[in-house]
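INTERNAL AUDIT FORM
Audit reference: QA-55
Scope: verify that the stored structure record matches its stored sequence.
Auditor: D.O.
Record contents follow.
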Amino acid sequence: GLTWEVVEQGQAHLVMRTRDAIWRRGLEFAYELTRTVRLRDDGLDSITTLALRTPWNHPLSWFPHAFWAQTALDATGYTLPEAAIATGSAVKDPDGFWRLRTRSGIGGSAVVTGLWGHCGAIDCRLDPALGGGTVRMAIDRPWDHLVLWASPSATSAEPQLARMWPRQDTASWTMSYTWLE
């Protein structure tokens, strides 16, 4: 396991950092990952900064996401842009919410495409049996695609961030979660 150090802590924020390195064929592959969580009156921002230290360009795929508790596989619904195309176990209900449903009821996932370049947000309508409400999820860069995942006790919407990482580069991205009701 990795060790996280608390770099900064306040009443409404926390900054943590970890790092690791491996050597392959005499070359070092190293990174430093910093996570910042800032609470707002209406939600939170989760900021990730990744410094990748390699002597070569390297592909990176990252799925920033939060998990939401639920009492049934399809208890949480997602509002997606009109252009969204979901494959897998997602179905759109009569109210316009995408929900995960499978015959087994054990778990499911769906890949949502048609979002390339989308710069907006999606809404997560949470399980009414656990208090309900809606959370708006936004990322500070254009979307590629989204993975919806669910089990009978938890669900997640996971936007993919994918890029070729130039050697010795550092980048940051922010996921924002805002309570709407």
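Auditor finding: record pair retrieved intact. The radius of gyration is 18 Å.
Action required: none
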